[in-house]
Amino acid sequence: MDHEPSYKKRKVITIGVVSELTGLTERQIRYYEQRKLIFPERPERGNRKYSFSDVERLIEIANKREEGVRTHEIRQEIMKKNKEEEERKIKKQMLRGQINARFGIQND
User: Fold this and answer.
1) What is the pLDDT of residues 71-96, one digit of tens each?
2) Which PANTHER family does this chain map to (predicted)?
């Protein structure tokens, strides 16, 4: 099975386009990166590349900031969501392994 990231996770969008899509300034976007709320890819030339998932997260961050939520609170929420997602993945893999073992299915 090919493990190519989905189109939403591919880091292909420049900071200028992200700024246009989100309504945030490039400075704000860099600040959110600095606060470890987003993680753009930085190829050799150093130009940041963002994914559609990053754009969605930035819009979510901007909305929360408008509501008065502080960046460290947003980061805590993101970390909690990431941990929960990782736990779901592990449980799913364990269940798949148990089912495969029960029915004698070999994984490749």
Assistant:
1) 999 999 999 999 999 999 999 999 99
2) HTH-TYPE TRANSCRIPTIONAL REGULATOR TNRA, REDOX-CYCLING DRUG-SENSING TRANSCRIPTIONAL ACTIVATOR SOXR
- HEC sequence for 59-83: HHHHHHHHCCCCHHHHHHHHHHHHH
Q: Residue 77: name the closest of 92, 61, 62, 66 by CA.
A: 61
pTM comes to: 0.77
Q: Which of left, alpha, beta for 70 (phi over 0: left; psi -120 to 50: alpha)? A: beta
Alpha-carbon gap, residue 48 to 18, rounded angstroms: 10
Ordered by where they begin, the domains of the chain are 13-103 (1.10.1660.10)
Query: How far is 37 from 30, CA to CA, in rounded Å?
Result: 10
Q: Which of 33, 38, 35, 43 is nearest to 12 (CA)?
A: 43
pLDDT in tens, 48-69: 999 999 999 999 999 999 999 9
Q: CA 87, CA 27: separation in Å to the nearest integer?
A: 34
Query: Strand (E) positions, the chain?
Result: 13-14, 49-50
DSSP state of 49: E
